[in-house]
Design goal:
By secondary structure, the protein is α+β, with helices and mostly antiparallel strands. Helix content is about 40%, strand content about 10%. The chain contains seven helices and four strands, in the order ααβαβαβααβα. Strand 2 (about 75-80), helix 4 and strand 3 (about 115-120) form a beta-alpha-beta unit. The two termini are about 25 Å apart.
Length: about 180
């Protein structure tokens, strides 16, 4: 351990509380965004509970995961599937439901097919840094590791990393999809 570091482990959620205690007003706007994000995640999770096949996950990225959601935030979402399932009827029905729910009021994800689609999770671990790794794959992998929240995690999707628990990363941030999916 770095001798200049605190012996106490860093809790990123606690850091905001410590800063707020030193600042008059305590980051009221951020607290409102956190409450909105928490409420929206709960509502979306409940909405998707009976719609998601047991081998896929609906994931939100960005301000949803950072708990910085505002009325002006876009809705970057994706559906993670096993290889070959991304075009199946039940997954496409779920995608249609997600488009209807999340793409309203100009809040649709960007048009580059990074989000707002179903895609297989296996390439995220399979092509790490190899010739077949793409910018899209790298971006998705990093966002899943660092900035994602799962709204639905099917029973079989929970074990996606069982065969190789370190496949995507050795560290899993609490609340991220990687943490949700880890054994």
């Amino acid at each position: 351990m770095d001798p200049g570091s605190s012996a106490e482990p860093l809790n990123p959620h606690g850091a905001l509380d410590r800063l707020a205690s030193q600042r008059r007003g305590g980051f009221a706007n951020l607290r409102v965004a956190q409450a909105l994000a928490d409420a929206q995640v709960r509502a979306a999770t409940a909405d998707l509970a009976d719609l998601s096949p047991d081998d896929v996950s609906v994931v939100m990225f960005g301000s949803w995961a950072r708990r910085e959601l505002t009325d002006g935030s876009d809705n970057d979402w994706a559906i993670l599937t096993p290889e070959g399932r991304e075009h199946d009827d039940d997954v496409q029905e779920l995608a249609a439901h997600c488009r209807a729910r999340f793409n309203e009021d100009g809040k649709a994800p960007g048009a580059q097919d990074m989000f707002g689609v179903a895609f297989p999770w296996s390439p995220l671990a399979q092509y790490v840094g190899l010739d077949d790794d793409t910018n899209t794959n790298l971006t998705r992998r990093m966002l899943i590791l660092l900035e994602s929240v799962a709204l639905s995690v099917g029973l079989r999707a929970r074990s996606v990393l069982d065969d190789d628990p370190g496949a995507i990363s050795g560290t899993r941030r609490e609340g991220s999809l990687a943490a949700t999916l880890s054994p």
